[in-house]
Structure formats: structure tokens, C-alpha cells
């Protein structure tokens, strides 16, 4: 096991872990967004409440939640380790190297973007996941599920939370634009024929996913009444 430990604790190994966990988290974003789109149904929140009840009680989903948490933890930990290693390798910094000419703004600020996303994630979990799993939410009459939809409406009437949500989705878009392309490079999946498509697809994916999430709180803030 010594070779395995050395391989995945090396810089290259950690970049591979970052890439795999990052792409896995991208798949989670797709699934999560598709489920959240039920919030737009004009049914008083019934579809969203049913979806939330299913996600909270399905044993396969509950198992995948553990995998998801581990994916987040590995991704965050490796990001911290790689950032420290990069700084240690360049103690002088980029001041004299004109980094803006050789890299994108998002690639130079992945730490900042990741921190914004992490703060948002903690607030988001506190607002929705904790009440849904451990709180005393109001039940829906003549149904076996709770009314999480009402909590969503209440939360998205808070301008501070909506502002944080939208800013975080902008940060997510930039984070994904760089991370998506970087993941394929770290995994060695580059080719002069396919790399341009991967870049274009990555930008489109990042913008559409982030925009989809951002539209939800804006819709509730401006168009849905308590």
C-alpha cells in the first residue's frame, strides 16, 4: 500500500483526486438542479415536497449522501493542500511575472471562489437540510410528507439570503469554468481535436447550471407571495 499512499499524496495524485471528485460533484449539481426545478410547478409546492420526501427517505439516496459528503471533503482538503504547495513553490509570487497574461482570473482565484461556495453551502444546509432532517417542519394535510416548500418560500423572501445565493452562483460559474477544463487536463484527457469542444461544453455547462440555480431564488423573491 506504500506505493498507493505515495501516489495519491503526490501533487499529481491529489490533482487526480481533485478532478474525479470535481466531476462527481458536477453530476450532483445536475441531479440537484433537476429536482429543484419542481419548485417552478404551479401546484402549491406539492411536486417539490414529494421530491424532497423521496430524497430524504430513499435508502439508496441516503447512502449516496455519504459518498457526496466524502467527495466534498476530499475535494476541499486537496484544494487546500495543493494551494499551500503552490505557494510554497513560489514564495515570491507572481508580482513580476504578469500572471494575467498567462492565466485566467478564475484560475488565479479558485481559493476565493471555493471559499464563497463553501460559506454558501454551510448556510444553505442550515436553512434547508437541517430543518428537513432534524427539525419540526409543518406537515402537509392528508399527506405523509412535510411542507419544505413553505420553508423555501420563506427563505427566498430574505433579500440578504437571496443576494448571497446569487453571488455564490456567480462564484460557482467561474469556479466550474476553470475546474471543468482543468479536470480533463489533470486526467490526461486532452486532444487537439476534442479539447476545444470540452472547453466550450464546460463554459456552457457552468453558465447554465449556475444560472438555473440563481433563477430559483430570484423567481420566489419577485413573483411568489408568502
From TrEMBL:
Sections of the chain in a coiled coil = none
Transmembrane ranges, per UniProt, are 20-41, 61-80, 110-129, 160-180, 201-224
Reply yes or no: does the keyword Membrane apply. Answer: yes
Q: Which domain of life is it from?
A: Bacteria
Query: What keywords are annotated for this sequence in UniProt?
Result: Membrane, Transmembrane, Transmembrane helix
Matching Gene3D superfamilies: Fumarate reductase/succinate dehydrogenase, transmembrane subunit
Would the keyword Protein biosynthesis turn up in this protein's UniProt record? Answer: no
Q: InterPro entries recorded for this chain?
A: Cytochrome_b-558, SQR/QFR_C/D
This protein is called Succinate dehydrogenase
